[in-house]
């Protein structure tokens, strides 16, 4: 009880939480400080894909912590290079950019799309996103998050973002103009209610991006890395994006987040 009172005293109250303080976890199970058992069916909001405290994850963290906890980007890092190679071999990407959060890598994906056309002296800077999407809560990704309850306290948002209807290709086409740089979409909307994109919708987005010279960004931060039975959800559609964003279970509770991109746009960063 005292811990909960201290939490309310010292931490900003951004979430409504039950009166329980978690102490430890194993697999699907977690225990509070009083020893009461709970089952976590959301995996730490799609982070603990291997469960809590998987022995191999714990061992890897211990081994790395004994060698090198932090290595700035001024130096090469063996684990980072190995992971980047694995992600490229598993995905449609050619290059990897690591960030600190899902919102940050989505920001990076948006920046990359805009810069891609800037380098070609093309005035293409707008981003199309879907209603009920969730791409983050930074001031940039919030503008691409299609839920008013997250946006309302920060209006007006950045002006270059345009909303379309998920699974409605005609709605997306109506939002397209010559200044659109990219379309960002979750193959399976998580925050929006586990809405699965149809094959026709994803194929149509790819064709539209090819025709109108736009980049296609798949956000698989919640649905990627084995959660659908394949490594990535986009693999069910046989459609490749230009940029793919990943986070959450990529770190298995550690700090790796990334986006992969096709070689043509990868050299800009």
Short characterization:
33% of the residues lie in helices and 19% in strands. The protein is built from 10 helices and 12 strands.
Q: What this model shows, in words?
A:
- Helices cover about 35% and strands about 20% of the residues.
- With about 270 residues, it is α/β, with parallel strands linked by helices.
- The strands form three sheets. It has a seven-stranded mixed sheet with strand order 4-12-11-10-7-5-6, sandwiched between helices. Strands 1-2-3 form a three-stranded antiparallel sheet, with no helix packed on it. The chain has a two-stranded antiparallel sheet with strand order 8-9.
- The longest helix has 17 residues.
- It starts with a helix and ends with a helix.
Structural class: alpha/beta
Number of separate strands: 12
Shape: globular
Whole-number average pLDDT? 92
- Report low-confidence residues grouped into runs of 5 or more: none
Tally the helices: what do you get?
A: 10
Q: Could you tell me the radius of gyration in angstroms? A: 20 Å
What is the terminal-to-terminal distance? 48 Å
- Helix percentage: 25-40%
CATH class of the largest domain: Alpha Beta
Report the order of strands and helices: HEEEHHHEHEHHEHEEEHEEEH
CATH topology of the largest domain: Aspartate Aminotransferase, domain 2
Largest beta sheet: strand ordering? 4-12-11-10-7-5-6
Q: Could you state the CATH homologous superfamily of the largest domain? A: Type I PLP-dependent aspartate aminotransferase-like (Major domain)
